[in-house]
Amino acid sequence: MEKKPFSFHIDPSMFEPASLGEKKELIIQRQSLSFWRDAWRRLRKNPTAMIGLAMIILALLFAFVGPLIVPYKYDEQVRGFENLRPMQTPEARNDAKNAVVKPKNRSDEFAYDFDTSPPEDTANKATVTVENKVAIFPHVLGTDSLGRDNLVRLMYGSRISLLVGILASVIILIIGSTYGAFSGFAGGKTDNIMMRILELLYAIPDILIVIILAIVLKAPLSKLFAVSPALSKLTGIGPGLLSMFITFALLYWVGMARIVRGQVLQLKEQEFIIAAQALGAGNNRVIFKHLIPNCIGPIIVTTTFQVPNAIFVESFLSFIGLGISAPMASLGSLANDAMSGIQTNPYMLAQPAIMIAIIILAFNMLGDGLRDALDPKMKK
Amino acid sequence: MAGFLLKRVLSSIATLFIIITATFFLMHAVPGGPFATNEKLSQGIIKQMEAKYGLDKPLIQQYGIYLGNLVKGDLGMSIASKEGKTVNYIIGQKFPVSARLGGLSVLLALILGVLMGSYAALRHEKLADRVIMFISTLGIAVPGFIMGMLLLLLFGVALRWLNFIGLNSPLDYILPTFTLAFYPACFIARLIRSSLLDVLGQDYIRTARAKGIPAISVLIKHAMRNAILPVVTYLGPLLAYVLVGSFVVERIFSIPGLGLFFIKSITSRDYPLIMGTTIFLAALIIIMNLVVDLVYVVIDPRIKLK
Fold first, then answer.
1. Do A220 and B11 touch (CB under 8 A)?
2. Are B123 and B223 contacting, i.e. CB atoms less than 8 angstroms apart?
């Protein structure tokens, strides 16, 4: 183009075409952050949340990989290995006991030795392999009153507790967000009725009903599992766990439903929903493709906080003797078993108690961080 | 006001009715019945026993009878206790122990929580605030009964400072009370801190300070009156927490209260007792929530009733 004198046209000769590299540079200058990347960036900056995340990963490794390494089984009872202290071998314990017993009475000594040493004939083969195992892998946390390895039982207990926590949260997530989304989306009378039902459920002291449900469900579920062993093989869980999941499914979705409903009420008036409806999207599509993905932040945060809650309820129930049934163990039932021997073996109570504390603390720390990262509005 | 009152009372009654109905039918859905576990009993004796406790009638009729008795305040007979004690008698015997412990815990939680929270708010962003917030975050995250076990292990077993079986001397109250109170105290501390920070930033506080009123009386007379309101709403859940928490705390510290008895009645399948205790505790919690709601309306004149 020619330059016209005295015009306000820009002189083209002052410009030259940008090279490809320059063009690229311009684009790269501010990389657009996706929602998830932005959240991850914010989460990574939060040391508490990252410590929580690391603790959760360690706990998961401990619970799911640990039992593969330790050469004992959770229900493996070994005679002569009962009530060992951490790292103790039966010989060391017997020596300690003998040292106390010996000065008292000489005639007792023989009888005592006779009692505790495993019968030569029957147990010989078993003890050889057991001793090999102990030589490779001592009972790091000791054994319980039936000669079962505490470490491996703690691993299985953590596994059950984590499983209950995570699966229960998923159940709550599904039921709660569906109920809340439908209620908020429907509005009007339907919403009103659904919310009244919610309020009634909310007013019920949950733990009391959970206890009743746990009592009631235990018998029929045990029967069901006894009738069809395939069921327990298929699902990998026992009646105690299943009743726990049912109680969670029945009672604990209320908080989630409320939060999702609140979000949906805010979102459904916005333009993109109207646009989707104008394009002919049905209600189901609008709810599941547009509304729920847009309240994913609060949903994830609430779910993270549900996990420690569920673990707490599970250990609470197991602790009062209602949860999982022996020989399987959860952290709560381990603590329950340890209560009787608290004077002699206090470490057996300390192990599951500390484990529960660590897991619940970790999930709470991560939850706090996630809330800040995913949902800055919720931060106070 | 009258409309709100009526609505609130009616919804509480509805909730209670749902709990009673659900508990009744759930407990009667358990196969076998309470006498099935005892193998020594012959068929005839079981029939007689069932007749005695009215278990041979149709379920709906039993439900009607149970409701009728409940209205009169009669929770039925305990099956497991040999002398044929009533559930009312057992609750009357055991509940005071739990109530004393629970009352002390509520008191301790309120005092500790308000003190911690207001001190943290006054020292906002300073070291004391950070320390208190750290402790209260920990206290909220770690469940109360785990805290109880750890306290027991530390002070009872390792240090041997305190006895941890039963409630025989006033000193024995320390561990269980603290265990029950710790979580709510931390919760209250956080509530008070955040609401106090809110209130302290408002103009009327600055006016009061400008008039020359000393900081401490501004805090108590002006700020606390508003900052304490969220704590009042928390009283209902607090009571529920203490009542249910007593189950485990009484188990941990071997306290012969209603909670420990309730756990024992679960193992002995004493259905009337389980039902009676559940309904009693649920009613207590619901009534307390109702009272708290009403009190809240009275003390906060800003709340407009629909």
1. no
2. no
Q: Is B36 on the interface with A (CB under 8 A)?
A: no
CB contact under 8 Å between B247 and A353, yes or no, is no
Distance from the A335 Cα atom to the nearest Cα atom in chain B, whole angstroms: 9
| Facing B285 at nearest CB: one of A205, A212, A321 | A205
- ipTM confidence score: 0.77
Q: Chain A residue with minimal CA distance to B14?
A: A200
CB contact (8 A) between residue A349 and residue B240? no
Indicate yes or no: CB of B143 within 8 angstroms of CB of A322: no
Instruction: For residues A207-233, give the mean pLDDT.
Output: 72
Predicted confidence (pLDDT) at residue A110 exceeds the cutoff of 80 = no
For range A42-69, the mean pLDDT: 84
Please write the tens of the pLDDT for every residue from A2-28.
Answer: 556 666 667 777 788 888 877 777 665
User: Is A357 in contact with B12 (Cβ distance < 8 A)?
Assistant: no
Inform me whether the C-beta atom of residue B284 falls under 8 Å from chain A C-beta atoms.
no
**B7 to A85, A288, B147, B299: CA distances (angstroms):** 60, 36, 40, 19
Q: What mean pLDDT comes out for the span B134-150?
A: 82
For B35-53, the pLDDT digits (tens) are: 655 556 677 777 777 777 6
What is d(CA B260, CA B250) in angstroms, rounded to the nearest whole number? 6
Q: What Å distances lie between residue B287 and A2, A205, A348, B73, B92, CA to CA?
A: 89, 12, 40, 15, 18
- pLDDT, residue A322, reads 76
Chain A positions touching B244 (Cβ under 8 A) are 205, 207-208
Q: Which residues of A178-211 are buried (b: 16+ CB within 10 A; e: fewer)?
A: bbbbbbbbbeeeebeebbeebebbebbbbbbbbb
Distance CA B32, CA B38 (A): 11
Instruction: Count the Cβ atoms, other than its own, within 10 Å of residue B222.
Output: 19
Using the beta-carbon criterion (under 8 Å), do A357 and B152 form an inter-chain contact? no
Please report the DSSP string for A98-153 in residue order. HHHHTTT-HHHHHHHHHHHSPPHHHHHHHHHHHHHHHHHS--TT-B-TTS-BHHHH
